[in-house]
Structures are given as C-alpha cells and as structure tokens.
Specification:
The protein has helices at about 25-40, 50-65, 100-110, 130-140, 175-185, 200-210, 240-250, 270-275, 325-335, 355-365, 395-405, 425-435; strands at about 5-10, 15-20, 40-45, 65-70, 75-80, 95, 115-120, 140-145, 155, 165, 190-195, 215, 220-225, 230-235, 255-265, 280-290, 300-305, 340, 370-375, 375-380, 385-390, 410-415, 435-440. It is an alpha+beta fold. The chain has 2 domains: about 5-25 and about 235-440, Enolpyruvate transferase domain (UDP-n-acetylglucosamine1-carboxyvinyl-transferase, Chain), CATH 3.65.10; about 25-235, UDP-n-acetylglucosamine1-carboxyvinyl-transferase, Chain, CATH 3.65.10.10. The strands form 6 sheets. The chain has a 4-stranded mixed β-sheet. Helix 1 packs parallel to helix 6 (about 200-210). The mean pLDDT is about 95. It binds shikimate-3-phosphate. It is an enzyme of class 2 (transferase). InterPro entries: Enolpyruvate_Tfrase_dom, Enolpyruvate_Tfrase_sf, EPSP_synthase, EPSP_synthase_CS, RNA3'P_cycl/enolpyr_Trfase_a/b.
C-alpha cells in the first residue's frame, strides 16, 4: 500500500467533495480483540481496524494461544479462551507503536500466572509507563521496566491482585483501562476516579461482554471474579481518522464532504466543539446508537462544508475529549483568522512524538508563526507556504501536514510517513478520492 512509502508530496487539490467512510476505530478495535480473547465463546468483530497497531495486539494474543480468524478484511473471529485460558508466551510480546496496546496489556498480564515481556518500537520505547506500573504495583503486581519507567516491561506472573480505589493523576483512558483490566483478576472491588472524564470504551465493552460494571463520567467501578461472555462487536469509523478530513473540508474553499457512520462517543468529539467555536459548518445526520444503552457506541454521518475559521482560546475542559486531534487543530488554527491559544495539553508531549514540538517545527517550516509553551502553543493564523516538514514517525503529524498542504502556496514534502499505516491504512487513496492532492513517493 502506498502509505508504506517514506515520503509524500502534497499540494493544493480541488475542493473536497463526495462521501467516504474512514477505517474502524483504533481504541475500540484493540479492546474488542482483548476482551474477545479473554471471553468464553466466539466473538465476531466487524469494522476492525486493519492497522499495524491493532494487528500487533491480535498477534500478541495469538502468541498466548488465542485463535483469531480473518474471514474477510476488517473482520475478526476471536476464539476466546476465558479469563484464565491464556498460555505463557514463548517470546516477547511486541506491541509495535501502540501505547494503548502496551498499557492495556500490562493490566491483563499483571493478573496472569505466567511471566511476560512487553516490547515496542523506538517511539513506544520512549513513552512513560510509570503511570500504569504505579497503580498495578499498588494492586500487587510485580513489573520491571527500563530506566525511568520506560519499556520494555517485564511482568511477573503468579501474584494475587487486590482491588484498588485509584485516583488517576492524569486524565488517561489507557491508565484507567489498565487498572480496570487488572481489576478483573483482583480480589474485591476496583474503583477508578479521573481528574477529567476520558473515553469509556473499556467500560462500555466490559458491560457488553456481560461483566458487571458501574460507570459514569470520570468514574468506574467493578469487582473481580466474574466471567466475560463472547459477543458481537461493531466497530464504528474512527473519529480521529475522520478528523483530518473534517478539518480539510472546513478549510478548503468550495468543499462539502460527507463522512459516514463516524463514532461519536462524546469523550472523542471535542474537536467538533472547538471547530464550531472557530466558525466551522458541521452537521450531524442520522445519529444512530441504541440510545440509553450504556454498552452501545453512538454513530453519525457528518456533513462538513467550508467556512471561514477564526482563532480561539481552546477551552481547557475540551482537551481530553480531543487529545488525539491537536495536530489537526493546529493546522486549522494556522489557516484561521487571528490567534489560537492551546493550554493544559502537556500530555501532547508524550504521544507518538512530542506533538507540540513536531507541529511547531513543521508549521514554522511552512512559514507559520507559532510559539510553543510547556503545555500548548500560541498560533497566529495566516498564510501557509510550501516547504519540507518531518513527521518524526508520528502518523497524526504526517496526516495533519497533508491537510495543511491543501492550503499551501507551494508544494509540501512530508518526510517519514510510513507510520500512517499504524492507524489509517489507505489514507493516500481515500484522500485523493475526495480531491486532496497527495502523492506517495
Ligand atoms: C487511547 C487513549 C488516549 C489516546 C490514545 C488512545 C485509548 O491516550 O491518546 O490514542 O485507546 O485508550 P491516553 O489515555 O493516554 O490519553
């Protein structure tokens, strides 16, 4: 697939038009494989993301004896082995680029009878794991890490876990999920309280697999000693993948684009609120999802029309709800009229790259005035020029600059784009099909 190339050349395309559906949600796909593997019975997953991150998670469970079939692209049949049915892996477990994979797996593996070793690629090997090691250790797990709490993680088996009442210091769905997954194996009750509510896919999916769980914004509570029962999982289209096209269609004059069946979990759609404050024209249609049922994921078609955008102070309360969308928002801000200020987003510094630094460097290379702050940035909207930018192996940085290039006065070369395959296989083809000008070299 052309996304595997190392470099893209991009330039202003046509107004964006047509309708498209982006691939399945990464967060939901990881969790569907995990819970399917730990359930009793056979789970069918439809809309599975065929990305490197989620395929790495599937391979990890195969290494531990779980049979996973691929009857067709974007479909998996997971033959669950039950909560205690995983087999000791003969090799290290490679999570690739996926922070979600490694952090959630650490919770699952902390509860096993066997030892295991989680490893990742160069980017994942730089990401902080103390945030999961600390609460899991407090529950009775034994985990050795590299220096400074970095991967690899050696997780010792055979420990009895105790439930915990844990207040997460950072708003992180990955930390919350790791603790809840360990809680499945723990004696007593596990409660997680967050400083700000984060995505609740683990909670919804645990409920869908029949595990008794109480949850609401910013809080979840479950007890150990139950069983997961296989079910069917319908993965919605990934809002974070749709985000690039939402921003592109908002920015490129003359655009009108329909994004089909996008996952609309309210803890993911903060970008819509931010863009609407900036003046964007985004309509939600045919909203689906079994309203009122806690285990269902809401879905909607989004119709995006070009509109002139103005700079804003991004409300800090929106930050966790749009944490993966800041690279795209920075591009919107660079093309808006006036100044945009982002604060309270220090977490961006520990994602697949330091997203404040990589976006600032790239936007500056295209002539945008941007000032980094420790927890955000101040961006002066205006004209984007051509030039060469580097994505630092970060999929969302690469795709954000492909969007920026649509507005650029000159051609843009985007280096180091192979990692787009972690979350968005087929991005180049889809982008071109709606009128973006993007070529894989
Ligand atoms: C994710 C949670 C977020 C997000 C990541 C996926 C998840 O990370 O950035 O892309 O699937 O739980 P944090 O929870 O660490 O903020």
């Amino acid at each position: 697939m052309s996304d595997g190339g190392q470099r893209w050349s991009a330039g202003a395309g046509r107004p964006l038009g047509g309708a498209l559906k982006v691939p399945g949600d990464k967060s939901v796909s990881h969790r569907a494989v995990m819970l399917g593997a730990l359930a009793e019975g056979t789970t069918r997953v439809r809309g599975f993301l065929e990305g490197e991150d989620t395929r790495a998670t599937a391979r990890v469970f195969e290494t531990m004896g779980v049979r996973i079939e691929t009857p067709s692209a974007s479909e998996r049949i997971v033959h669950g082995v039950g909560l205690h049915g995983l087999r000791a892996p003969a090799t290290e477990l490679d999570c690739g680029n996926a922070g979600t994979g490694m952090r959630l797996l650490s919770g699952v593996l902390a509860g096993q009878a066997f030892d295991s070793m989680l490893v990742g690629d160069a980017s994942l090997s730089r990401r902080p794991m103390r945030r999961v090691i600390d609460p899991l250790t407090a529950m009775g797990a034994r985990i050795d890490s590299g220096e400074g709490g970095l991967p690899p993680l050696r997780i010792h088996g055979g420990n009895t876990l105790q439930g915990i009442d844990y207040k997460t210091p950072v708003a992180s769905a990955q930390v919350k999920s790791a603790v809840l997954l360990a809680g499945l194996y723990a004696r007593g009750e596990t409660v997680v309280t967050e400083p700000h509510p984060t995505r609740d896919y683990s909670e919804r999916m645990l409920a869908a697999f029949g595990w008794p769980i109480e949850f609401g914004p910013g809080r979840a509570r479950l007890g150990g000693g139950h069983r997961l029962r296989a079910t069917e999982v319908e993965v919605p289209a990934d809002f974070s993948s749709a985000a690039f096209f939402i921003v592109a269609a908002s920015l490129v004059p003359g655009s009108e684009l329909r994004l089909r069946a996008v996952g609309m979990n309210p803890r993911r759609t903060g970008l819509l609120a931010a863009l609407r404050l900036m003046g964007a024209d985004i309509r939600e249609e045919s909203v689906a999802g079994r309203a009122g049922e806690a285990d269902a994921e809401p879905v909607a078609d989004l119709v995006v029309r070009h509109a002139p955008l103005r700079g804003i102070e991004v409300p800090e309360a929106l930050v966790p709800d749009m944490i993966d969308e800041f690279p795209a928002l920075f591009v919107a801000a660079a093309c808006a009229q006036g100044r945009t200020v982002v604060r309270g987003a220090a977490e961006l510094r520990v994602k697949e790259s330091d997203r404040i630094a990589t976006m600032a460097a790239g936007l500056r290379a295209l002539g945008v005035s941007i000032q980094e702050t420790p927890d955000g940035a101040i961006i002066e909207g205006g004209r984007i020029g051509g030039g060469r930018v580097h994505s630092h192996g970060d999929h969302r940085i690469a795709m954000s600059f492909a969007v920026a290039a649509q507005l650029a006065h000159g051609s843009v070369t985007i280096e180091d784009v192979a990692n787009v395959a972690t979350s968005f296989p087929g991005f180049v083809e889809l982008a071109n099909s709606i009128g973006m000008g993007l070529q894989a070299d």
